[in-house]
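Page 42, continued from yesterday. The earlier attempt failed because a stray header line got pasted into the input along with the sequence. Redoing it now with the clean sequence only.
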Amino acid sequence: MFARLIFYGTTLLGRAESEVWLMPIGHLLDQWEVYKQFNGLVKPKREYYIDEIIPNGI
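This time it went through. Structure tokens are written below.
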């Protein structure tokens, strides 16, 4: 599993191997998920709209 995460971090995310090794696992997985969504490999689990985040009247 770590070999695959190192591969993703270095080749697909463009990070140095030492940076990937020192990166917290949650941060690496978040960046991998953003990469997949950006490249159209997966759909976001839920789409948010600006009206849901910022209530009316502000």
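Notes: The chain has four helices and no strands.
Reminder to self: strip header lines before submitting.
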